[in-house]
Amino acid sequence: QVQLVESGGGLVQSGGSLRLSCAASGFIFGAYDMAWYRQAPGKQRELVATITSGRLTIYADSVKARFTISRNNAKNTVYLQMTTLKPEDTAVYYCKLGPPTRGNYWGQGTQVTVSS
What we know:
Helices cover about 0% and strands about 50% of the residues. By secondary structure, the protein is an all-beta fold. The strands form two sheets. Strands 2-10-9-4-5-6 form a six-stranded mixed sheet, with no helix packed on it. A four-stranded antiparallel sheet has the order 1-3-8-7, with no helix packed on it. A hairpin with a 5-residue loop joins strand 5 and strand 6.
């Protein structure tokens, strides 16, 4: 079965960096798009970044030039490198399996807290 396990969250000061990882299993990782979402308290879950199976990347305007999504198909892992973090980046970050799946597969989330 599909499993997505995020790690790498934590507490960091404003301006700092973190790298999130999402280890995937249960499917042919290299054939699927992957995405990172986040949900801040009291807000809707929002798309942060997507990487296609062909390694095309798309970012939310709020994170462009600060965050980088990448993937290592040999390790079945997708990453989110976050730099110049701001307090408004505080959220639970989720990994999601993208197309061509028709299912709705999410990781359990990892908390990122940015202190001012």
